[in-house]
Amino acid sequence: MKEIKTFSIKDDLCPVGFALKVIEGKWKLPILWVLCQNGTLRYNELKKSILGITNMMLTSSLKELEESGIVNRVQYNEIPPRVEYSLTEIGNRLLPVLDEFAKWGQELIGIKKL
């Protein structure tokens, strides 16, 4: 009998589960996609680029992505304060995955229209 592999999002040894945990949530992928498409952005530029996101969700999602090493945050000591967000090197390695995901989504849109 074939052994069935199991999956747990709580298993930090499973690379797929670990990666999904880093990008889980409603807003992290849209944040990553916007940074992917636009490069370095200030907080308000990010907020305007993601329709429907609240300040609280943007702040918490950015903090989690920064803690995971996916997003880089640079604060400049100016008045008024300026903070910029960009993808880190490991975050940039997600770009081909997001591009393929976008292509897959486009295929799904085409299938749905049939």
UniProtKB/TrEMBL annotation:
Keyword Transcription regulation: yes
Pfam families reported for this sequence: HxlR
Ranges for domain HTH hxlR-type: 14-113
UniProt GO MF annotations: DNA binding
Claim: Nucleotide-binding is one of the keywords in the record: no
InterPro entries listed in its UniProt record: HTH_HxlR, WH-like_DNA-bd_sf, WH_DNA-bd_sf
Organism superkingdom: Bacteria
Keyword tags: DNA-binding, Transcription, Transcription regulation
Residue runs in coiled coils: none
PANTHER family, per database record: TRANSCRIPTIONAL REGULATOR (PTHR33204:SF29), TRANSCRIPTIONAL REGULATOR, MARR FAMILY (PTHR33204)
Protein name: Transcriptional regulator, HxlR family
Organism: Sporomusa malonica
